[in-house]
Amino acid sequence: MITLYQLSNSVCCQKVRIVLCKKGLDWQSVEVNLFRAEQYHPDYLKLNPKGVVPTVVHDGQPIIESTLICEYLDDTFPEPPLSTTDPLLRSRMRLWGKAVDEGLHDGTTDISFSAMFRERMKKMPEDLREARFRNVGDPRRRDRFLSTYELGARSPFVLHAVAAYEKAFKLLEVTLEAGGPWILGARPTLADINLMPYAARMDYLGLLGVWTDKRPHVLDWWTRVQEWPSFIAGLSAPVTAAEIEEMGTYGPKIRGNLEEHLAALRHGESGS
User: Fold this and answer.
1) What does the pLDDT look like over 111-131, one tens digit per residue?
2) What predicted TM-score, i.e. pTM, was given to this entire model?
3) How far apart, in whole angstroms, are the C-alpha atoms of residue 243 and residue 131?
4) Half-sphere exposure (CA, 13 Å, Cβ side) for 61?
């Protein structure tokens, strides 16, 4: 039995769901509401001491960290394969996982928070809002949340997010131009799946075009992703109309800030 502890509109959880759907596995969902701090409940912390989602429990054993969960599922249920046995290609596949884990994930959180979750927290009772910040637990993560709460898209952490996306999509354009139609070649792998939810979040926020303008191979890849049945089943179909409306309402309001950040970054590159 596979149990997925998740928040349905979490990018990390979406990544795992895409793999589960592609593998055709039977699994059950347990929703963990982060805005009610359910991730800090003692019973959940026994499964995931970091107090984050997702967590997969398979045959009674918890597996944490979405990138590792996806690799675990691919190793445990090898058909259809979402990896490669070629050592060089496998290392390249894992580079995309590192790009997500070391830059895009925090970046997506900061952009999403400054665009819409910030507005939710403004409407919270003060005691609940303060508890939300206290419960973060990770001082660095708390600093990011406080900065984006107070400064919105003008936070330096949002600048870092814009830079992470620019680096990733610049590399993606070059990679796809040299090969394609998927990152490692003829079929989608965990390299693509790692990136899909992060592109999707920016698209739902109305912000993807900030980075995809004049990158035709990235746009072709994104069109192909949206038509892939496992992406539809694992990500786009579960997104609710209310979530789509919220993202589409608040995301465009910060687009100008992101474009300013990106222009400054590109100017710095051209001037160096």
Assistant:
1) 999 998 887 777 777 777 776
2) 0.93
3) 24
4) 5
